[in-house]
Amino acid sequence: MSGRLRLVAVALSVAGIAVSVYLTVVHFIGFAPACPTTGPINCETVLTSKYAVLAGTSIPTSALGVVWFTVSAVFWIGGWRRAINWWSGAGLAFALALVFVEIGVLGAICLWCTAAHLLVLTLFLIALTEHSRQRGAY
Amino acid sequence: MSSRRAQPARKDAAQRGKAVARKPVAGTPRWVAPTAVLAGIALLIVVFLIYRWYTTPLPPPPPSQDTTAQVLQILENIPKSDLDAVGQGTANNLIKPVSGSALVGPGGKPEVFYLGAEYCPYCAAERWPMVIALSRFGTFSGLTLTTSSSTDIYPNTVTLTFRSAKYTSQYIEFVAVETTDRDQKPLQSPTTEQQQLVQKYDSAGSIPFVDFANKYAFDGAMYKPDVISGMSWLSAAESLQSPDSAQAKAILGSANLITAAICKSIGDQPADVCSSTTIQNLEKTLK
Protein backbone atom coordinates (compact mmCIF):
# COMPACT_ATOMS: atom_id res chain seq x y z
CA MET A 1 0.00 0.00 0.00
CA SER A 2 1.40 3.39 -1.01
CA GLY A 3 2.46 5.32 2.08
CA ARG A 4 1.69 8.66 0.52
CA LEU A 5 -1.83 7.67 -0.55
CA ARG A 6 -2.49 6.21 2.87
CA LEU A 7 -1.41 9.48 4.48
CA VAL A 8 -3.71 11.45 2.17
CA ALA A 9 -6.60 9.09 2.98
CA VAL A 10 -6.07 9.52 6.72
CA ALA A 11 -5.93 13.31 6.31
CA LEU A 12 -9.16 13.28 4.27
CA SER A 13 -10.83 11.11 6.90
CA VAL A 14 -9.84 13.61 9.59
CA ALA A 15 -11.22 16.45 7.44
CA GLY A 16 -14.45 14.44 7.11
CA ILE A 17 -14.64 14.03 10.87
CA ALA A 18 -14.26 17.83 11.25
CA VAL A 19 -17.06 18.58 8.76
CA SER A 20 -19.37 15.97 10.32
CA VAL A 21 -18.69 17.19 13.85
CA TYR A 22 -19.47 20.76 12.73
CA LEU A 23 -22.81 19.67 11.24
CA THR A 24 -23.63 17.62 14.34
CA VAL A 25 -22.87 20.55 16.64
CA VAL A 26 -24.97 22.85 14.41
CA HIS A 27 -27.84 20.37 14.74
CA PHE A 28 -27.73 20.14 18.52
CA ILE A 29 -27.04 23.81 19.24
CA GLY A 30 -29.62 24.92 16.70
CA PHE A 31 -27.77 27.71 14.93
CA ALA A 32 -27.73 28.08 11.14
CA PRO A 33 -24.53 26.89 9.42
CA ALA A 34 -22.47 29.31 7.36
CA CYS A 35 -24.28 28.76 4.06
CA PRO A 36 -26.61 30.65 1.69
CA THR A 37 -30.31 30.38 2.53
CA THR A 38 -31.84 31.39 -0.77
CA GLY A 39 -31.78 29.56 -4.06
CA PRO A 40 -30.96 25.91 -4.69
CA ILE A 41 -27.93 26.03 -2.39
CA ASN A 42 -29.60 26.03 0.98
CA CYS A 43 -28.15 24.17 3.95
CA GLU A 44 -31.07 25.16 6.17
CA THR A 45 -33.59 23.41 3.95
CA VAL A 46 -31.55 20.22 3.95
CA LEU A 47 -30.53 20.27 7.60
CA THR A 48 -34.04 20.94 8.88
CA SER A 49 -35.66 18.31 6.67
CA LYS A 50 -36.84 14.97 8.01
CA TYR A 51 -33.88 13.36 6.23
CA ALA A 52 -31.40 15.26 8.41
CA VAL A 53 -32.06 12.84 11.28
CA LEU A 54 -32.13 9.06 11.43
CA ALA A 55 -35.71 7.89 11.02
CA GLY A 56 -37.63 8.00 14.28
CA THR A 57 -34.76 9.48 16.28
CA SER A 58 -33.20 12.84 16.99
CA ILE A 59 -29.77 11.60 15.92
CA PRO A 60 -28.51 13.76 13.05
CA THR A 61 -27.38 12.00 9.89
CA SER A 62 -24.10 13.86 10.28
CA ALA A 63 -23.40 11.75 13.40
CA LEU A 64 -23.19 8.78 11.04
CA GLY A 65 -20.59 10.79 9.15
CA VAL A 66 -18.50 11.15 12.30
CA VAL A 67 -18.62 7.37 12.79
CA TRP A 68 -17.92 6.60 9.13
CA PHE A 69 -14.91 8.92 8.80
CA THR A 70 -13.49 7.75 12.15
CA VAL A 71 -13.71 4.08 11.14
CA SER A 72 -12.28 5.00 7.73
CA ALA A 73 -9.28 6.70 9.38
CA VAL A 74 -8.70 3.63 11.58
CA PHE A 75 -8.86 1.28 8.58
CA TRP A 76 -6.43 3.40 6.57
CA ILE A 77 -4.01 3.68 9.50
CA GLY A 78 -4.22 -0.08 9.96
CA GLY A 79 -3.80 -0.64 6.23
CA TRP A 80 -6.60 -3.21 6.13
CA ARG A 81 -7.24 -3.36 2.42
CA ARG A 82 -10.32 -5.54 2.30
CA ALA A 83 -12.05 -3.56 5.06
CA ILE A 84 -11.13 -0.27 3.34
CA ASN A 85 -12.66 -1.45 0.06
CA TRP A 86 -15.95 -2.54 1.61
CA TRP A 87 -16.18 0.48 3.90
CA SER A 88 -15.46 2.93 1.07
CA GLY A 89 -18.05 1.29 -1.17
CA ALA A 90 -20.71 1.37 1.52
CA GLY A 91 -19.87 5.02 2.28
CA LEU A 92 -20.16 6.02 -1.37
CA ALA A 93 -23.51 4.23 -1.73
CA PHE A 94 -24.90 6.03 1.33
CA ALA A 95 -23.53 9.38 0.15
CA LEU A 96 -25.21 8.87 -3.25
CA ALA A 97 -28.50 8.14 -1.50
CA LEU A 98 -28.16 11.41 0.40
CA VAL A 99 -27.33 13.28 -2.82
CA PHE A 100 -30.53 11.85 -4.31
CA VAL A 101 -32.49 13.18 -1.33
CA GLU A 102 -30.90 16.62 -1.78
CA ILE A 103 -31.38 16.90 -5.55
CA GLY A 104 -34.36 14.67 -6.25
CA VAL A 105 -36.50 15.12 -3.15
CA LEU A 106 -35.62 18.43 -1.48
CA GLY A 107 -34.36 20.35 -4.50
CA ALA A 108 -31.70 21.95 -2.33
CA ILE A 109 -27.99 21.40 -1.88
CA CYS A 110 -26.20 21.69 1.44
CA LEU A 111 -22.64 22.89 0.86
CA TRP A 112 -21.31 21.33 4.06
CA CYS A 113 -22.95 18.01 3.24
CA THR A 114 -21.50 18.20 -0.27
CA ALA A 115 -18.03 18.73 1.22
CA ALA A 116 -18.49 15.52 3.22
CA HIS A 117 -19.81 13.66 0.16
CA LEU A 118 -16.80 14.75 -1.90
CA LEU A 119 -14.48 13.50 0.83
CA VAL A 120 -16.25 10.13 0.77
CA LEU A 121 -15.93 10.02 -3.03
CA THR A 122 -12.23 10.91 -2.91
CA LEU A 123 -11.59 8.23 -0.29
CA PHE A 124 -13.42 5.72 -2.47
CA LEU A 125 -11.32 6.69 -5.50
CA ILE A 126 -8.12 6.33 -3.47
CA ALA A 127 -9.24 2.90 -2.29
CA LEU A 128 -10.07 1.97 -5.88
CA THR A 129 -6.69 3.17 -7.15
CA GLU A 130 -4.94 1.16 -4.45
CA HIS A 131 -7.05 -1.87 -5.31
CA SER A 132 -6.16 -1.55 -9.02
CA ARG A 133 -2.48 -1.15 -8.19
CA GLN A 134 -2.48 -4.25 -6.00
CA ARG A 135 -4.13 -6.24 -8.80
CA GLY A 136 -1.35 -5.32 -11.18
CA ALA A 137 -2.94 -2.60 -13.22
CA TYR A 138 -0.52 0.03 -14.41
CA MET B 1 18.01 -43.20 -18.54
CA SER B 2 14.60 -41.72 -18.91
CA SER B 3 14.71 -40.21 -15.39
CA ARG B 4 18.04 -38.57 -16.13
CA ARG B 5 16.45 -36.96 -19.24
CA ALA B 6 13.38 -35.83 -17.34
CA GLN B 7 15.24 -33.83 -14.67
CA PRO B 8 16.69 -31.17 -17.01
CA ALA B 9 13.25 -30.92 -18.66
CA ARG B 10 11.55 -30.12 -15.30
CA LYS B 11 14.26 -27.56 -14.53
CA ASP B 12 13.66 -25.86 -17.86
CA ALA B 13 9.92 -25.75 -17.24
CA ALA B 14 10.48 -24.23 -13.77
CA GLN B 15 12.75 -21.57 -15.24
CA ARG B 16 10.20 -20.85 -17.96
CA GLY B 17 7.54 -20.51 -15.25
CA LYS B 18 9.66 -18.00 -13.31
CA ALA B 19 10.26 -16.05 -16.48
CA VAL B 20 6.51 -15.98 -17.18
CA ALA B 21 5.75 -14.76 -13.61
CA ARG B 22 8.30 -11.96 -13.91
CA LYS B 23 6.92 -10.75 -17.22
CA PRO B 24 4.83 -7.54 -16.69
CA VAL B 25 1.11 -8.09 -17.19
CA ALA B 26 -0.59 -5.63 -19.48
CA GLY B 27 -3.75 -5.00 -17.36
CA THR B 28 -6.29 -2.23 -17.44
CA PRO B 29 -4.68 1.18 -16.93
CA ARG B 30 -5.08 2.37 -13.34
CA TRP B 31 -6.96 5.54 -14.31
CA VAL B 32 -9.79 3.63 -16.01
CA ALA B 33 -11.66 2.48 -12.89
CA PRO B 34 -11.74 5.90 -11.12
CA THR B 35 -12.73 7.60 -14.36
CA ALA B 36 -15.52 5.07 -14.89
CA VAL B 37 -16.74 5.69 -11.33
CA LEU B 38 -16.73 9.47 -11.84
CA ALA B 39 -18.58 9.10 -15.13
CA GLY B 40 -21.13 6.82 -13.47
CA ILE B 41 -21.67 9.33 -10.67
CA ALA B 42 -22.06 12.19 -13.15
CA LEU B 43 -24.67 10.13 -14.98
CA LEU B 44 -26.49 9.39 -11.74
CA ILE B 45 -26.60 13.10 -10.87
CA VAL B 46 -28.10 13.82 -14.29
CA VAL B 47 -30.73 11.16 -13.55
CA PHE B 48 -31.44 12.81 -10.17
CA LEU B 49 -31.86 16.20 -11.89
CA ILE B 50 -34.22 14.72 -14.47
CA TYR B 51 -36.23 13.10 -11.67
CA ARG B 52 -36.39 16.46 -9.89
CA TRP B 53 -37.50 18.22 -13.06
CA TYR B 54 -40.12 15.54 -13.69
CA THR B 55 -41.55 15.74 -10.16
CA THR B 56 -41.47 19.55 -9.82
CA PRO B 57 -45.02 20.90 -9.83
CA LEU B 58 -45.82 23.14 -12.76
CA PRO B 59 -47.02 26.66 -12.00
CA PRO B 60 -50.80 26.65 -11.79
CA PRO B 61 -52.60 28.46 -14.62
CA PRO B 62 -53.07 32.20 -13.97
CA PRO B 63 -55.89 32.75 -11.51
CA SER B 64 -59.16 34.20 -12.68
CA GLN B 65 -60.78 37.10 -10.84
CA ASP B 66 -63.32 34.63 -9.53
CA THR B 67 -60.60 32.46 -8.05
CA THR B 68 -58.96 35.47 -6.40
CA ALA B 69 -62.29 36.54 -4.93
CA GLN B 70 -63.03 33.01 -3.68
CA VAL B 71 -59.62 32.66 -2.06
CA LEU B 72 -59.87 36.05 -0.34
CA GLN B 73 -63.41 35.30 0.77
CA ILE B 74 -62.15 32.20 2.55
CA LEU B 75 -59.03 33.80 4.07
CA GLU B 76 -60.84 36.85 5.39
CA ASN B 77 -63.62 34.82 6.95
CA ILE B 78 -61.95 31.93 8.74
CA PRO B 79 -64.36 31.04 11.58
CA LYS B 80 -63.02 31.88 15.04
CA SER B 81 -63.98 28.37 16.13
CA ASP B 82 -61.61 26.89 13.52
CA LEU B 83 -58.77 29.18 14.60
CA ASP B 84 -59.37 28.23 18.23
CA ALA B 85 -59.52 24.54 17.36
CA VAL B 86 -56.06 24.71 15.78
CA GLY B 87 -54.31 26.85 18.40
CA GLN B 88 -50.61 26.89 17.55
CA GLY B 89 -51.06 23.78 15.40
CA THR B 90 -47.79 22.74 13.82
CA ALA B 91 -46.51 26.30 13.47
CA ASN B 92 -43.02 27.03 14.66
CA ASN B 93 -43.01 30.04 16.98
CA LEU B 94 -40.27 32.28 15.56
CA ILE B 95 -41.50 35.48 17.18
CA LYS B 96 -38.96 37.19 19.42
CA PRO B 97 -39.30 40.29 21.58
CA VAL B 98 -37.37 43.33 20.37
CA SER B 99 -36.71 46.65 22.03
CA GLY B 100 -36.66 49.97 20.30
CA SER B 101 -38.69 53.13 19.90
CA ALA B 102 -42.27 52.27 19.03
CA LEU B 103 -42.80 51.69 15.33
CA VAL B 104 -45.62 53.94 14.24
CA GLY B 105 -47.17 54.09 10.79
CA PRO B 106 -47.84 57.20 8.67
CA GLY B 107 -51.28 57.51 10.27
CA GLY B 108 -49.91 57.44 13.82
CA LYS B 109 -51.06 53.93 14.67
CA PRO B 110 -48.77 51.04 15.65
CA GLU B 111 -47.19 49.65 12.49
CA VAL B 112 -46.74 46.05 11.36
CA PHE B 113 -43.90 46.07 8.86
CA TYR B 114 -43.28 43.27 6.36
CA LEU B 115 -40.27 42.83 4.08
CA GLY B 116 -40.27 40.03 1.54
CA ALA B 117 -40.03 39.18 -2.12
CA GLU B 118 -42.31 37.43 -4.55
CA TYR B 119 -39.71 34.86 -5.65
CA CYS B 120 -39.13 33.72 -2.07
CA PRO B 121 -40.97 30.47 -1.17
CA TYR B 122 -40.80 31.18 2.57
CA CYS B 123 -42.43 34.57 2.00
CA ALA B 124 -45.04 32.77 -0.12
CA ALA B 125 -45.78 30.45 2.78
CA GLU B 126 -45.91 33.23 5.37
CA ARG B 127 -48.25 35.54 3.46
CA TRP B 128 -51.17 33.13 3.96
CA PRO B 129 -51.18 33.44 7.77
CA MET B 130 -50.27 37.14 7.53
CA VAL B 131 -53.41 37.83 5.50
CA ILE B 132 -55.56 35.72 7.81
CA ALA B 133 -54.21 37.37 10.96
CA LEU B 134 -54.29 40.94 9.65
CA SER B 135 -57.84 40.43 8.35
CA ARG B 136 -58.92 40.02 11.98
CA PHE B 137 -57.84 43.62 12.69
CA GLY B 138 -58.78 45.35 9.44
CA THR B 139 -59.50 45.02 5.74
CA PHE B 140 -57.30 44.37 2.73
CA SER B 141 -57.81 45.54 -0.81
CA GLY B 142 -55.58 45.03 -3.83
CA LEU B 143 -54.31 41.58 -2.84
CA THR B 144 -53.50 39.45 -5.86
CA LEU B 145 -52.49 35.82 -6.31
CA THR B 146 -49.08 34.71 -7.50
CA THR B 147 -46.52 31.93 -7.03
CA SER B 148 -42.95 31.85 -5.80
CA SER B 149 -40.07 31.37 -8.24
CA SER B 150 -40.12 28.35 -10.54
CA THR B 151 -36.38 27.86 -10.12
CA ASP B 152 -35.92 28.25 -6.35
CA ILE B 153 -36.57 25.58 -3.75
CA TYR B 154 -40.25 24.77 -3.13
CA PRO B 155 -40.90 26.01 -6.69
CA ASN B 156 -44.21 27.60 -7.68
CA THR B 157 -45.57 27.79 -4.14
CA VAL B 158 -48.99 29.38 -4.42
CA THR B 159 -49.43 32.62 -2.48
CA LEU B 160 -50.75 36.17 -2.46
CA THR B 161 -48.66 39.26 -2.93
CA PHE B 162 -48.67 42.53 -0.99
CA ARG B 163 -47.19 44.49 -3.92
CA SER B 164 -50.39 46.50 -4.57
CA ALA B 165 -52.21 45.78 -1.33
CA LYS B 166 -53.88 48.48 0.75
CA TYR B 167 -54.85 47.85 4.33
CA THR B 168 -57.16 49.79 6.61
CA SER B 169 -57.68 49.19 10.30
CA GLN B 170 -58.68 51.25 13.29
CA TYR B 171 -56.00 49.53 15.38
CA ILE B 172 -52.86 49.11 13.28
CA GLU B 173 -51.19 50.10 10.04
CA PHE B 174 -49.62 47.55 7.75
CA VAL B 175 -46.65 48.50 5.59
CA ALA B 176 -45.33 45.91 3.14
CA VAL B 177 -42.32 45.94 0.84
CA GLU B 178 -41.92 43.27 -1.83
CA THR B 179 -38.37 43.81 -3.07
CA THR B 180 -38.55 41.71 -6.25
CA ASP B 181 -41.07 39.91 -8.40
CA ARG B 182 -41.08 36.12 -8.85
CA ASP B 183 -38.34 36.40 -11.50
CA GLN B 184 -36.19 38.38 -9.06
CA LYS B 185 -36.59 41.63 -10.96
CA PRO B 186 -36.60 44.70 -8.68
CA LEU B 187 -40.05 45.73 -7.51
CA GLN B 188 -40.11 47.91 -4.40
CA SER B 189 -37.31 49.34 -2.26
CA PRO B 190 -37.36 49.73 1.50
CA THR B 191 -36.79 53.24 2.86
CA THR B 192 -33.63 54.05 4.80
CA GLU B 193 -35.56 53.71 8.08
CA GLN B 194 -36.91 50.33 7.01
CA GLN B 195 -33.44 49.16 6.04
CA GLN B 196 -32.13 50.22 9.45
CA LEU B 197 -34.95 48.30 11.07
CA VAL B 198 -34.04 45.15 9.18
CA GLN B 199 -30.33 45.56 9.94
CA LYS B 200 -31.15 45.97 13.63
CA TYR B 201 -33.48 43.03 14.10
CA ASP B 202 -32.61 40.75 11.18
CA SER B 203 -28.87 41.12 10.76
CA ALA B 204 -28.68 37.99 8.59
CA GLY B 205 -31.09 39.67 6.14
CA SER B 206 -33.44 36.67 6.02
CA ILE B 207 -36.84 37.16 4.46
CA PRO B 208 -39.65 37.34 5.17
CA PHE B 209 -39.02 39.78 8.00
CA VAL B 210 -41.95 41.06 10.07
CA ASP B 211 -41.82 43.70 12.80
CA PHE B 212 -44.78 44.21 15.13
CA ALA B 213 -44.56 47.86 16.24
CA ASN B 214 -40.98 47.25 17.42
CA LYS B 215 -42.30 45.06 20.21
CA TYR B 216 -41.89 41.71 18.47
CA ALA B 217 -40.27 40.57 15.25
CA PHE B 218 -39.51 37.41 13.34
CA ASP B 219 -37.85 36.29 10.17
CA GLY B 220 -38.41 33.14 8.13
CA ALA B 221 -41.53 31.07 7.70
CA MET B 222 -43.36 29.44 10.58
CA TYR B 223 -44.02 26.34 8.51
CA LYS B 224 -42.39 24.61 5.56
CA PRO B 225 -43.67 25.69 2.14
CA ASP B 226 -44.02 22.04 1.10
CA VAL B 227 -47.21 21.92 3.17
CA ILE B 228 -48.93 23.58 0.20
CA SER B 229 -46.66 22.17 -2.50
CA GLY B 230 -48.47 21.31 -5.73
CA MET B 231 -51.75 22.83 -4.56
CA SER B 232 -53.76 25.44 -6.41
CA TRP B 233 -54.66 28.69 -4.61
CA LEU B 234 -58.24 27.56 -4.18
CA SER B 235 -57.40 24.06 -2.93
CA ALA B 236 -54.93 25.57 -0.45
CA ALA B 237 -57.56 28.02 0.77
CA GLU B 238 -60.26 25.34 0.94
CA SER B 239 -57.98 23.07 2.96
CA LEU B 240 -58.06 25.71 5.70
CA GLN B 241 -61.75 25.02 6.19
CA SER B 242 -60.85 21.68 7.78
CA PRO B 243 -59.01 22.41 11.03
CA ASP B 244 -57.62 18.86 11.01
CA SER B 245 -55.80 19.29 7.70
CA ALA B 246 -52.01 19.66 7.64
CA GLN B 247 -52.46 23.00 5.88
CA ALA B 248 -54.84 24.34 8.55
CA LYS B 249 -52.58 23.22 11.38
CA ALA B 250 -49.62 25.02 9.80
CA ILE B 251 -51.27 28.12 8.38
CA LEU B 252 -53.96 28.78 10.99
CA GLY B 253 -51.43 27.97 13.73
CA SER B 254 -49.08 30.59 12.25
CA ALA B 255 -51.97 33.05 11.92
CA ASN B 256 -52.79 32.61 15.60
CA LEU B 257 -49.17 33.31 16.58
CA ILE B 258 -49.15 36.46 14.43
CA THR B 259 -52.49 37.50 15.91
CA ALA B 260 -51.10 37.03 19.43
CA ALA B 261 -48.05 39.16 18.59
CA ILE B 262 -50.24 41.94 17.20
CA CYS B 263 -52.60 41.78 20.18
CA LYS B 264 -49.75 41.97 22.65
CA SER B 265 -48.12 44.82 20.73
CA ILE B 266 -51.21 47.03 20.75
CA GLY B 267 -52.71 46.38 24.16
CA ASP B 268 -55.06 43.49 23.37
CA GLN B 269 -57.54 45.20 21.13
CA PRO B 270 -60.06 44.48 19.74
CA ALA B 271 -61.29 42.39 22.64
CA ASP B 272 -63.30 39.99 20.49
CA VAL B 273 -60.05 38.90 18.83
CA CYS B 274 -57.48 39.27 21.60
CA SER B 275 -59.41 38.04 24.62
CA SER B 276 -59.97 34.53 23.26
CA THR B 277 -58.40 31.78 25.34
CA THR B 278 -56.31 30.64 22.36
CA ILE B 279 -54.77 34.06 21.77
CA GLN B 280 -54.26 34.68 25.49
CA ASN B 281 -52.47 31.35 25.82
CA LEU B 282 -50.27 32.08 22.82
CA GLU B 283 -49.48 35.54 24.19
CA LYS B 284 -48.01 33.80 27.23
CA THR B 285 -45.56 32.00 24.96
CA LEU B 286 -44.31 35.38 23.68
CA LYS B 287 -41.78 36.61 26.21
What secondary-structure arrangement, pairings included, does this model have?
The complex is a heterodimer of chains A (138) and B (287).
Chain A: H1 3-29, H2 43-47, H3 61-78, H4 81-106, H5 111-134
Chain B: H1 2-22, H2 32-55, H3 65-75, H4 80-86, E1 96-97, E2 111-116, H5 121-134, E3 138-141, E4 144-147, E5 158-161, E6 166-169, E7 173-178, H6 192-201, E8 209-212, E9 216-219, H7 233-239, H8 246-265, H9 271-274, H10 277-285
Parallel strand pairs in B: 2-7
Antiparallel strand pairs in B: 1-9, 2-8, 3-6, 4-5, 8-9
Concise description?
Helix content of chain A is 72%, strand content 0%. With 138 residues, chain A is mainly alpha-helical. Chain A has a single domain, classed as de novo design (two linked rop proteins), CATH 1.20.1440.130.
Total of DSSP H or I helical runs spanning 4+ residues of chain B: 10
Topology pattern of chain B, helix = H, strand = E: HHHHEEHEEEEEHEEHHHH
The number of strands of chain B is 9
What Rg of chain A is obtained from the alpha carbons, in whole angstroms? Answer: 16 Å
- Main β-sheet, spatial strand arrangement of chain B: 1-9-8-2-7
The shape of chain A, in one word, is: elongated
Mean pLDDT score of chain A: 89
What is the CATH class name of chain A? Mainly Alpha
